[in-house]
Specification:
The protein has about 425 residues and is of the alpha/beta class. It has 16 helices and 15 strands. The chain has five domains: about 5-130, 2-Layer Sandwich (N Utilization Substance Protein A, Chain:P, domain 4); about 140-200, Nucleic acid-binding proteins (OB fold (Dihydrolipoamide Acetyltransferase, E2P), Beta Barrel), CATH 2.40.50.140; about 215-280, 2-Layer Sandwich (GMP Synthetase, Chain A, domain 3); about 285-355, 2-Layer Sandwich (GMP Synthetase, Chain A, domain 3), CATH 3.30.300.20; about 370-425, Orthogonal Bundle (DNA polymerase, domain 1). The longest helix has about 30 residues, at about 100-130. Helix 1 runs parallel beside helix 4, helix 2 (about 20-40) packs across helix 4 and helix 5 crosses helix 8. InterPro entries: DNA_repair_Rad51/TF_NusA_a-hlx, KH_dom, KH_dom-like_a/b, KH_NusA_2nd, KH_sf_prok-type, NA-bd_OB-fold, NusA_N_sf, S1_domain.
Length: about 425
């Protein structure tokens, strides 16, 4: 067993590599020694530990109270036995019993190492929380480290120790991802896990588009131009509403850039996704007209009690206002926060606005299918999953094998089968099969 000086030197090197202060190292080593003493003598043991870094010496003594009748062998010592060491001991005195570091040094050092590693991990977790707590909506860059069941694990260029993932539902499924390639994504939220904070990134959220515009538009970076609202159908179309704090600066023009350079840089990152940039207005009727671009709206009527907008367009503008599968009006409704009912001018005259010609379609996630519709999942397995609160593919897409094993009735073989089904559904290498 190495002496205390060698042990101190080895621990100092470990602490230096982990950027731990010398005083903190001593506290951790003392904790390790006390833990080793407690393991050997019992949890009630009382001791003192002194570390002389200059001499490389560690002094350890166990403290026992001198009594006439011993009730606790760990904390007390018989008066007669104490006087055998020193005749001057009296009842109530504290006797110091030296302990050689070499007696239990190995376990003490191991305990100290564990505490150093634990303290480093806690420090890293705190550092990650402090660094990213106020950065939701920021654009982060890194490298794709691993692709597992559709979930992308990202090693960030800065803060490589942070756990960062792009879940399946936060990806643009028109894109192909490859291990080792660089990737950019927006920080959507921070999740707390037993292993510490996990950064949830997204390339599918409207926040990602906003972050890209902040990167490309200096007026947004400086705060002169602000994105007030955004709506998106990933891989297809995004609408953003912008406003300028300076009347001399056109917010839409600032985002478009000279010859469209700024918006084209964003479009290129999004793989050709269409982007509508409109001025924001606090007047809901005017904002609705602007939000329905590129369609031209003839008239709008609002009902504040139901937050409903009735928009009238000419016949040749109706299909443009509705958009493919109702996309344009649906995004406009999401952008404004108002329900928008569309009418052609002829329909408005004939029906007087009583019956809307078009109601926005629900924005369904293509991957959010009922578990009962997933081929290969046994009826009994579906019942167990539903009893656990999981009803759709999206509910289980990011679960791990251990999560399934926690459910009563799911055997290891069945958990493996579920994982295999999810692997097949979320296979990466082209278009997603979960459509």
């Amino acid at each position: 067993m190495a002496g205390s000086a060698e042990i101190l030197m080895a621990l100092r090197e470990l602490a230096d590599s982990k950027q731990i202060q010398r005083g903190e190292l001593h506290d951790l080593l003392k904790d390790g020694i006390l833990a080793a003493l407690a393991k050997k003598h019992g949890p009630t043991v009382q001791a003192e530990v002194e570390i002389d870094d200059a001499k490389g010496d560690i002094r350890i003594v166990i403290l026992k109270k001198v009594v006439e009748d011993v009730a606790d062998q760990v904390t007390e010592i018989d008066l007669e036995e104490a006087r055998y060491e020193d005749p001057d001991y009296q009842p109530g005195d504290l006797m110091e019993i030296p302990v050689s570091f070499e007696e239990f040094g190995r376990s003490a050092v191991q305990a100290a190492k564990q505490r150093i590693v634990q303290r480093v991990r806690e420090g890293e977790r705190t550092k990650i929380r402090d660094e990213f707590a106020g950065r939701v909506g920021d654009l982060l860059s890194g490298e794709i480290q691993q692709i597992e069941r559709g979930k992308i694990v990202v090693m960030l260029n800065k803060f490589r120790e942070a756990e960062a993932i792009i879940p399946y539902r936060e990806q643009n499924h028109r894109e192909t991802y490859t291990q080792g390639e660089p990737v950019r994504a927006v920080l959507k939220r921070i999740e707390e896990t037993p292993k510490g904070p996990r950064l949830i990134l997204s390339r599918a959220d409207a926040l990602f588009v906003q972050a890209l515009f902040r990167l490309e538009v200096p007026e947004i970076q400086s705060g002169i131009v602000e994105i007030r609202a955004a709506s998106r159908e990933v891989g297809s179309r995004t609408k953003i509403a912008v406003v300028s704090k300076d009347d001399a600066i056109d917010p839409v023009g600032a985002c478009v850039g000279l010859k469209g350079a700024r918006v084209q840089a964003v479009v290129q990152e999004l793989g050709g996704e269409r982007i509508d940039i409109v001025p924001w207005s606090n007047d809901p009727e005017r904002f609705a007209k602007l939000a329905l671009a590129p369609a031209k709206v003839a008239r709008v009527f609002s009902d504040p009690t139901t937050k409903t907008i009735q928009a009238v367009v000419d016949e040749d503008q109706l299909s443009l206002a509705i958009g493919r599968n109702g996309q344009n009006v649906r995004l406009a409704s999401e952008l404004t926060g108002w329900k928008i009912d569309l009418y052609s001018s002829r329909e408005w005259l004939e029906r007087g606005g009583d019956i809307p010609l078009f109601a926005p379609l629900p924005d369904e996630d293509a991957a959010d299918v009922p578990l009962s519709d997933i081929e290969g999942l046994a009826t009994a397995t579906v019942a167990v999953l539903e009893a656990g609160g999981y009803r759709t593919l999206n509910d289980i897409i990011d679960l791990e094998r251990e999560d399934f094993l926690k459910l009563p009735g799911i055997a290891p073989e069945e958990a493996d089968r579920i994982i295999a089904i999810l692997d097949e559904l979320t296979e990466v290498g082209g278009e997603s099969t979960a459509e």
